[in-house]
Amino acid sequence: MMLLEINGWLKAHGYIPQTEIVSHDLGERQKEQSLEVHSEKLAMAFGLISTQPGTTIKIVRNLRVCLDCHAVTKLISKITGRKIVMRDCI
Questions:
Q1: Which residues form the DYW domain (predicted)?
Q2: What is the rounded distance in angstroms from the CA atom of residue 23 to the CA atom of residue 89?
Q3: 88: which of 34, 50, 61, 67 fits an S-S bond (Cβ 3.0–4.6 Å)?
């Protein structure tokens, strides 16, 4: 439910998915759906529902964070007023 709510917030704030980074041969809507469920977004949704408001959310990835997830993280941080720290392998 929180992931759906996050996607609603993003659209309300003018977010446009960066579908050009999806390398699979899919239609535009399928590319958007693929981006909606990246593990970073799932981790943010879990962090938002499992911590107190105002708590910093820390996410560590063992792979590179895609450009779309980077943009989404900044926007969700702004929308929720929370500090979100995301670190990848580099």
A1: 14-89
A2: 21
A3: 61
Question: For residue 88, what pLDDT band results from cuts at 50, 70 and 90?
Answer: confident
Amino acid at 34: S
Q: Is 2 exposed, middle or buried (0-12, 13-18, 19+ CB in 10 A)?
A: middle
Of the candidates 80, 20, 87, 29, which has an alpha carbon nearest to the alpha carbon of residue 58?
87
Helices (H), the chain: 2-12, 28-36, 39-50, 67-80
Most distant CA pair in the chain, distance = 40
88 near 59, Cβ under 8 Å? Answer: no
Instruction: Enter the pTM of the model.
Output: 0.84
User: Does residue 75 sit in helix, strand or coil?
Assistant: helix
The whole-angstrom separation of Cα 8 and Cα 59 is 22
Task: Please say if the pLDDT value at position 85 is more than 90.
Answer: yes
Amino acid at 6: I
